[in-house]
Specification:
This protein has 446 residues and is an alpha/beta fold. The chain has helices at residues 20-30, 55-59, 73-78, 139-151, 162-174, 196-209, 257-261, 300-314, 385-394, 409-419, 427-434, and strands at 2-3, 12-16, 38-43, 81-85, 89-93, 98-101, 106-108, 111-114, 118-120, 133-134, 153-158, 178-183, 212-214, 219-224, 230-235, 240-242, 245-248, 252-254, 270-272, 283-285, 290-292, 329-333, 336-341, 351-357, 362-369, 372-379. Residues 423-446 are annotated as: Disordered.
């Protein structure tokens, strides 16, 4: 499928990839007065860009596929953007500044953006190539998992992070006689975001719904039946779990091969500087396929910041460039709200504040160092999460309000007002209480 640009062929920007990062970049470019005069977007999938974050509610039956679409094909044409769908770029010739697609087309570019995203990281175990082993990254995967759910039997999800848990819960909700298990290598679910208490609360909630959660479990191999289809998973400790289908959700691998084949500097991904420029000044990289310093990306908030920087660069304003900033993770896992930032484990020098209401299912833990918030985990009621993060970013010394911290902003501000001899409803306090948190305060998973 293709829509044709009405732009001049001069100053031709080509974007390889049509995911969320690419689409957000195009949206930022088309209304800029100094936009590239011709923009071509090449996407390997046959449909326009869509919101991958919503694949989980799609699988669960809570959304229809069309609700995920970010813009239809007409929007690209109306904004003078050439959109090529269902094509894969196979080769980049940096000397001639051309690229070749699997459709036999050769395109010239003045500037090129790699926004090729990532793919599921596959465990290096025997049987990983058997039929019935799937990822969960695109619309086709969601359709495949929906069919699996309705077939019944045993489904095994490898990975106890956000994507794995959402896939497992979606399978459970859509399943008809389907037994769903989650295999997590760590001793707890979502070990990068949650402490042990919050992870155990989440596990208990998911087990109560009917999921089988297996932690501290490392996959040794997958077994196949005589037809070449997966039938079981064998763990390192010898346990054998039945599996008619296996869904891999144990991390992502940047799609950096195209840049590597073109001779760009790569490490874990395509390396970029603070202006998202690769080792070739005519080529840029964005999102999950790029690496800035030692960082690679899987959450949308830093990628949205990259988009802002790159859009400015492509429109002639280099600015200060990209920099890493602290982010908090705001998630809803299977209907349970979570908010977390900073360390998941308390260090000996941390002052640890905890609140737990088992009856309501609420939990929060705040880590202080020298009176300043360094991290927090909230489970259930996450309303105070952004305020905690705002205080952490500002580096406020909260030593004098320690006794009220677990109750949030309102109680702390009452104490502040008393300390300052100001009435609690003063305009100053009101402004503090209603202030917006940083634009980098929350981040969904990509």
């Amino acid at each position: 499928m293709e829509t044709f640009s009405r732009c001049s062929p001069d100053d031709h920007l080509v974007i390889i990839g049509n995911g969320m990062a690419s689409h957000r970049l195009v949206e930022a470019l088309v209304n800029h007065p100094q936009r590239p005069r011709a923009i071509t977007v090449i996407g390997e999938e046959p449909v326009p860009a869509y919101n991958r974050i919503l694949l989980s509610p799609l699988l669960a039956g809570d959304m229809q596929p069309e609700a995920l679409t970010l813009r239809d094909a007409d929007w690209y044409q109306d904004n003078g953007v050439t959109l090529k769908l269902g094509e894969r770029v196979e080769h980049i010739d940096r000397d001639s500044r051309t690229l070749a697609t699997d459709a036999g087309e050769t395109l010239y570019y003045d500037r090129l953006v790699l926004a090729t995203g990532s793919r599921p990281t596959l465990p290096k175990v025997q049987g990983i190539a058997l039929d019935g082993v799937h990822g969960f990254r695109d619309l086709d995967d969601a359709a495949t998992l929906e069919a699996i759910a309705q077939q019944g039997g045993h489904a095994l999800v490898i990975g106890g992070g956000l994507l794995g848990l959402e896939a497992a819960e979606g399978l459970r909700k859509r399943g008809q006689g389907l037994q769903v298990s989650v295999l997590q290598r760590s001793d707890r679910l979502m070990n990068r975001q949650l402490d042990a208490t919050a992870a155990n609360l989440l596990k208990a909630s998911l087990v109560e719904r009917g999921l089988n959660i297996v932690t501290q479990a490392q996959l040794a191999k997958l077994e196949g039946d005589p037809t070449g289809r997966v039938c079981a998973a064998i763990l390192n400790d010898g346990r054998r779990l039945p599996a008619d289908s296996v869904i891999i959700a144990a991390g992502i691998t940047p799609n950096a091969e195209l840049g590597q084949q073109a001779g760009l500097t790569t490490d874990r991904a395509v390396k970029v500087d603070r202006h998202l420029t690769t080792s070739d000044p005519h080529i840029f990289a964005l999102g999950e396929c790029c690496q800035f310093e030692q960082h690679t990306y899987g959450l949308v908030e830093p990628i949205w910041h990259q988009v802002e920087v790159l859009a400015a660069v492509l429109c002639g304003d280099a600015g200060d460039g990209y920099r890493e900033v602290p982010t908090a993770t705001k998630l809803k896992v299977s209907g349970v709200s979570l908010f977390a930032f900073g360390p998941t484990e308390a260090a000996p020098e941390h002052d640890v504040l905890c609140y737990h209401d088992p009856h309501r299912g609420d939990y929060r833990r705040v880590l202080l160092r020298d009176g300043r918030i360094e991290g927090a985990v909230l489970y259930g009621d996450t309303q105070q999460g952004p305020w905690y993060f705002e205080q952490a970013l500002a580096g406020h010394d909260l030593s004098g309000f320690r006794q009220a911290l677990l109750f949030g902003a309102a109680d702390v501000e009452v104490l502040r007002a008393a300390a300052a001899q100001l009435p609690p409803d003063s305009s100053e306090l009101s402004a503090q209480h209603s202030s917006k948190h940083s634009s980098h305060s929350t981040s969904e998973a990509a």
